[in-house]
Amino acid sequence: MSQETQIGNLGGGISDEDSKLVDSILNDINSSSAPQQGGQGQGQGQQPSPEQIKMMQQQQMAQRQQQMAQQQQMAQQQMAQQQQEQQKMNMIQSNGNNDIIDNIKLEAKNIMTVIFLCVLLNIDQVDSLFKSVSIFSSESGGLNMQAVFVKALLIGSIFYLIKTYLL
């Protein structure tokens, strides 16, 4: 069996003199913290008053709330950016998924302009103009590669002018 001691059987062992000493120490502690509560501020080694602790806790809570609000705002901005990027990607993909006929419809003016210029610069009358210049005619009487390059440059230049100023 284990031996148990009742609380009432424990000797107080504290004399009146010891009790007075403890009360004196507690009174000194309370009296030294009383001016601190009056607003003289914290000295070295002194504990903050309960009011100061509450104020510090409130400041920390306010700072945490501000940080959380900033983090939420940043998260919302990131989400908005991601949504915009996703919308752009969807638009690009939808354009990429269009069939060839839709792309031709969008570029019809440019395509028709190039076709018209190619036909115009390849008719016999234009070829005869180039043949009249000795640089562009070959020994067999046809047009040489220099004439083909000049025609291509003319088609490109005229297309640029038409597209810039007319289309």
Task: Please name the defining characteristics of this protein.
single chain; 0% strand; mainly alpha
Detail the topology: elements first, then pairings:
Blueprint: H1 16-40, H2 50-97, H3 100-106, H4 108-121, H5 124-132, H6 145-165
Helix pairs in contact: 4-6
Q: What is the straight-line distance between the termini?
A: 109 Å
As a percent range, the share of helical residues equals over 70%
Count of DSSP E strands?
0
H/E order of the elements? HHHHHH
For the largest beta-sheet, the strand count, sense and barrel status come to: none
Low-confidence runs of at least 5 consecutive residues: 36-43
- Taken as a percent bin, the fraction of beta residues is under 5%
The value of Rg in angstroms is: 48 Å
Shape descriptor reads rod-shaped
Find the structural class using helix and strand composition: mainly alpha
Average pLDDT, rounded to a whole number, is 82
Number of helices: 6
Task: Give a nutshell description of this structure.
The chain is mainly α. It has six helices and no strands. Among the domains are: 50 residues; 66 residues.
Structure description:
- It is a single chain.
- It is built from six helices and no strands.
- The longest helix has 48 residues, at 50-97.
- Among the domains are: 48-97; 100-165.
- The protein has 167 residues and is mainly alpha-helical.
- The protein has helices spanning 16-40, 50-97, 100-106, 108-121, 124-132, 145-165.
- The protein is rod-shaped and about 135 Å long.
